[in-house]
Amino acid sequence: MTTNTRRDFLAAGSALSAGALVFGLRPLLAHGEHDAPGIARFDDAKALMKKHRLYGVAIAIPKGKDARKKLGARIEGFLERSAASLRPLLLEAVYVAVPAKDLPLEASENTVLLDPDAARVAGAKLNYANLARLADGLRLLLHDDHRRARRINASRTPRIKADVAALKKAFGPAYARLLQDWRRAAPTFLERYDNTKNPDEKSRIRSLVSSIWSTLIDEKDDRIGLPFGVEWKTKRWPLPEPCPPCGMARPRPPSRKFIGFLAK
Questions:
Q1: Looking at the 3D structure of the chain, how many domains does it have?
Q2: 206 vs 184: CA distance, rounded Å
Q3: d(CA 178, CA 172)
């Protein structure tokens, strides 16, 4: 179990705002103290992919009001109820919703994997209505044909390799550095999570993933959204007072409501 307190997590989270994976969210309206929807652009996603040499997962926006609404509700659903098996996959790439007509789709595909220069790498028909099947499909799309191995090799700098190795023993400075530089380090520590037999090490890496995920979902910086190209109404709840014995607070998670896709 992590020894980090909620206050430690919030402090570490502030350092992530400058380096989070999915930038581009801008405020659109204000609906109250804890309620602010926003929009994000495909250009923001492509710029981030190119700058940091990240892959992109482009979700095809279908034609028709009902089909768009259904896909939006499914994206809302997998973010709200994201299973542990899905979260690491959502940290491995930049996600963006793009009109189908603007993507290099092949027959029956609804999702395209893009390289850091936004060129097509592969495509798939993913099931966004089922978390388990979505995780299986994303894993195949992101990891097939040695794609994951190449990202791991690019990620595994001497410092990141040493910091990930340090998680075998304890939390500490290495954990904090990985939390701040998770975008670059993610392929290495996720691969270590899959391969280690050490339950304590698995627990620490799981805690790292959970902290990054929670920061993305609950980020108040208006540049950050998941995924790009979707407009949300996000309701956040006031942080409760910490309980005196443990100094921790357990806020309710934010509630996201799909409003629409930015691209018409």
A1: 1
A2: 17
A3: 10
